[in-house]
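Weekly modeling sync, notes
Attendees: S.R. (lead), two postdocs, one rotation student

Agenda item 3: backlog of single-chain predictions. S.R. asked that every request posted to the team notebook include the full sequence so nobody has to chase files. The rotation student volunteered to paste the first one in as an example of the format we agreed on. Action items at the bottom.

Example entry:
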Amino acid sequence: MTRATLDAVAKAAGVSRATASRALSGSGSVASDTAERVRAAAAKLNFTPHQAAQALAGAKAGAVALVIPEPDSLVLGDPFLSLVIRGISDGFHGSSYQVMLLIVHPDEPVEKLAGRLRPGVVDGAIVVSQHGSSELADLLAESGVPVVFIGRPWVSVDEQSGQTWPFVDVDNWLVGQLAAERLISREARNIACIAGPVDMNPVRDRLAGWRQTLEENGLEPGPIAHGPFTRQGGEEAMRLVLAADPTIDAVFAQSDLMAAGALVALRQAGDLPGVRQTGQWPLIGRQSVEDPASADRQAFSGDEGPFGRVSPGDAGLVAHIVADGGSAGSGHFASTGRIPLPDRTAPAADSESAVLLVSVDNSDIATSTTPTLTSVTNPGAELAKRASRILLRLIEDGVAPSEVAPEVIRPALVVRASG
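Predicted structure, as returned to the notebook:
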C-alpha cells in the first residue's frame, strides 16, 4: 500500500504544502478552521509524518536570514539599506543566531531562495525593500519559517492559509505630508515629486500623503517621475520633471540619493525659468536615518530611538524638528506640531529664488551635498532593531504572528539649507 504524502494531504485540504505542515506540527500561524480541515484530510488519508523529517524540522539552525530583493549595487550603495544591515547585526548581537544575507537580483527567480528559506537552514527571516510581486510572499508562506517585514508588506494576511505577516515601518504617509507642508510653508506653489519604484508600498504611501496635503492647501500636484532609489535614478527623474514643466519651484525627492542626483540635473538646467544659477538648490528627501552614536554630530532622539543627526557646521541651519518619537499602530499618524502654512492666496515665490528640495532618509548624504538637504527621517537602524526583537519573540517565545501588532515609527523633519 502506498504511503500517503504531505502533498496529498495539502491537496485534499485545498491548502499549500507549507500550510499543511504548520497545521499538523502546530508551528506557525494557521487559521483554526484551516487547521481542522488539514487534520481531517490527514486522518482520512491515514497520513503519518515521517519521524526523521519531523526531527529535522524541529531542529534549531542557529541562523536567521535577511532577504533583500534588490541588485548588489543598490544593496551596497543605498544608505538606508546599509543602516538596516547594521541594525539587524546589532539586533542579533549577543544572541545565538548568525545573520545570513540573501540578495535576490531582479532578473533572478525567487525560487533560488527556496533551499535557504526552510526549517533546519534558518530559524526565521526578515525582508526589506519588498516589491509588488507576489512570488516572494508565496515562497515565504511555503517556507514554514517565521517572517518579519521592514516596510508594510503588499499582503499582510494570506487569504488561503490565514498567515499573518508582522511588520515594522515608518509612517510613510506622514513622510509625504511633512515634506509637502515644509515646501508650502516656504511659499512653493508648483511642487513636483521624484519618487522611487511604483511597485513599492512606501513610495505609494509617501505620494498619497504629499498629494493630499497639496490638495488640502488648494494646490495641484506638480509632475511626478519614478525611478530607482539611486543617484542616477534621481537625476533621470529630475530631467523628466523639468521636461514636463520647467517652471517648478520645489521638489519632493523620495530619497537622499535621488535628491543628490536631482541636484546634478538642476545645475545642468540652470538656464531654465525658475532655476537660479548660483548652484544653491534646496531639497527634502527620504533616505536612511543616521547613527546618532557618532560623537562629532548632534543627535535628535525620541523616546524609542534615533531619528537623525546634524553635523556641527549645520547646527545653525536647523530651524525645526517636527514630531520625534516612536509609536505602535498600523495607520498613519495625525499631524501634530504642524508647521504653520502661509496664506495660500499669497503670491508665489520670487522667480529668482532657488528650486526648493525636500528629501527622505536624513542619511550622511544629507550633510555632504551643497546645499545640505532638508530631509524627513527614515530610521533604518531602528526599524531593523525592532524587526529583530519581533523575530526573536516569534522564534524563541513561540508567539503567534497574529498576536504581533505592527510597529509604526513617526518620522521627523530635519531642516537644513535646501528647503
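Discussion: group reviewed the output briefly. The chain has three domains: 6-58, 63-168+383-405, 172-378.
Action items: rotation student to repeat for the remaining queue; S.R. to check formatting next week.
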